[in-house]
Amino acid sequence: MSLVSAFVPIWILTAVGYAACRWGLLGEAVASVLGRFVFHLAMPSALFLALSRMPLSGFAGRSLLAFGVCTAAVVGFGWVGASRLFGRKPGERPIWGMAAGYVNSANLGIPIATQVLGNVSFLAEVVLLQVLVVTPVVLVALDRHSDPAGRVRVRRIASLPVRNPVILASLLGVACSAAGLHLPSAADASLSLLSGAAVPAALVALGASLHRTAPSGAEPPDLAELAVITALKLVAQPVIAYAAGLALHLSAPQLLAVVVCAGLPTAQNTFIFGQEYGVGEAVANRAVVVTTTLSLATLAAAAALLG
């Protein structure tokens, strides 16, 4: 299967999810229910199996460095640009930075990696980088700006790995790999079945979520603001990843993996964090919808060029 043709099942299942939501075939809560299933069960199973079966020596250090460079550059530019270009308040800047550079490594990342890259090994490393490095930085900033005294809830942030099934499953997978542990056959088979459901369920949920509307009462973001976020996410981040990959002398498959992962759309966590802290909800919501819709074309183009 060619790289571009690998996107065909992604487009079809996304369209199926969109149609199911539009015609009410699966109920109004289809996106929410499928999303929770993927997030709490299927996705953690897939990441745990991938990491537990991968030797620690197999971690792609240079590839992850290239991805880290592009993420830091785009999130940082978005964080600062939110204030300099559009006058965003300090509490909104972390959400703006996330919208520009925090990729959807889970719901959309797994089906993309499975179809285009053939496995989720590098994606699992991207998940670890985002949730163990980028997420705490964003939460610390949001906590500090949301607290009248500027305090940070250290206990809440420190407990994040235990409360988040994706992080927990990833850490357990790394621990099993390091200890050389193997699951009993029944447990391994059960997790394999769950992980197999991650891709189709995530894509159907993705299609259904494209009906998402802006939060009620929230002022929609300026079109210029949304255009800058979209350009940073879908153009600047993969281009910087490509340049960093060339500078680090990555092989062609490694370069493809880094660019494809960098070109993933804005993560839904951006909207969730904005909603929880009451800042930047409209920007995050529109960024998720627009970048998700356009990324199906930009990712296919990147795969075709690098292929």
Task: Give the SSE map.
Layout: H1 7-22, H2 30-52, H3 61-84, H4 93-101, H5 109-117, H6 121-146, H7 154-158, H8 160-163, H9 165-179, H10 185-196, H11 198-209, H12 223-247, H13 252-262, H14 269-277, H15 281-306
What can you see in these coordinates?
The structure is a single chain. This protein is 74% helix and 0% strand. The protein has helices spanning 7-22, 30-52, 61-84, 93-101, 109-117, 121-146, 154-158, 160-163, 165-179, 185-196, 198-209, 223-247, 252-262, 269-277, 281-306. α2 packs parallel to α9 (165-179), α3 (61-84) runs parallel beside α13 (252-262) and α12 packs antiparallel against α13 (252-262). It is an all-alpha fold. The protein is globular, with a radius of gyration of 19 Å.
CATH fold-level topology: Na+/H+ antiporter like fold
Query: How many strands, which pairing sense, and closed or not: the largest β-sheet?
Result: none
User: What's the gyration radius in Å?
Assistant: 19 Å
H-E order: HHHHHHHHHHHHHHH
Q: What is the assembly state of the chains in this entry? A: single chain
Q: Please report the first level of CATH classification, the CATH class.
A: Mainly Alpha
- The proportion of residues in beta strands is under 5%
Keywords, please?
globular, single chain
